[in-house]
Amino acid sequence: EPTVRTELMEQIPPIAIFLQESRPKFPTAFFEYLMPIVVRYLTDDNNQVRKAGQEALLILLEQDLVAQSDIENKVCPILLDLSAPDSDDEYKVEAVNIICKMASMLSRTTVEHMLLPRFCELCSDGKLFQVRKICAANFGDICNAVGQEATERLLIPKFFELCSDSVWGMRKACAECFMAVSYTTSPEVRRSKLSPLFISLISDTCRWVRQAAFQSLGPFISTFANPSSAGLYIREDGTLSIRPSMQDVNSNSCQPSNNITLVSSSTNAS
């Protein structure tokens, strides 16, 4: 019964945490028994079971309970199969979603060598606009996961494609994550390539795209500032924050902190 398998998946993370805490007694139990179940349920026939399996996998990755070898030899190959061009549409949408969510939890080497080539392919998926939209919405996270060199060499050309996509929702998603993409690039790329691209979004024919671009204008401008003098920095949760100067801290030592946080993630902005 699918409901039984779904309930089972929900119990996997707490069992895995218990086994990790009791590792001297159960040194290989998780890798021998639980991890194969999680991997198998990623391709289950029932979508509720698959969803439960995906959520369990993300929790396990977040808790750093999955070995690097299992990620590279078991998890990534399954996701690459599910996101292949000839894969079922429903499986493909789910796979690209989990790839994007996983990126921030994996090592830069793993993301760049195993997942980035497929992500770039999915950005140009002409069959499913849902796939392209997921890629656009998570573009900033992928840039942050792979760093400046891979972003400028492989991702920026794809970002240009998505920013000129015929579906306005794609362009809107790009506008919402523009600051995160800009923050990962060099000042020269920011000035010569991203600035003209942003102007095209702020002049878009669709008012929803223009509105999203105007909301991202301030955060995008802030990426041109020198962090050491402006005090601007990106937190781990993707928000842009302003660190008060030492003079302000000294003069307001008895006052509550008045740090300003500018939300840049698409979820919070919407």
Automatic annotation (TrEMBL):
Top-rank taxon: Eukaryota
An MF annotation (GO) of this entry: protein phosphatase regulator activity
Segment forming the signal sequence: none
PROSITE patterns, per database record: HEAT_REPEAT
Transmembrane domains' residue ranges: none
Keyword terms of this UniProt record: Repeat
Protein name: PP4R1 phosphatase
Organism, as annotated: Rhynochetos jubatus (kagu)
Top-level taxonomy: Eukaryota, Metazoa, Chordata, Craniata, Vertebrata
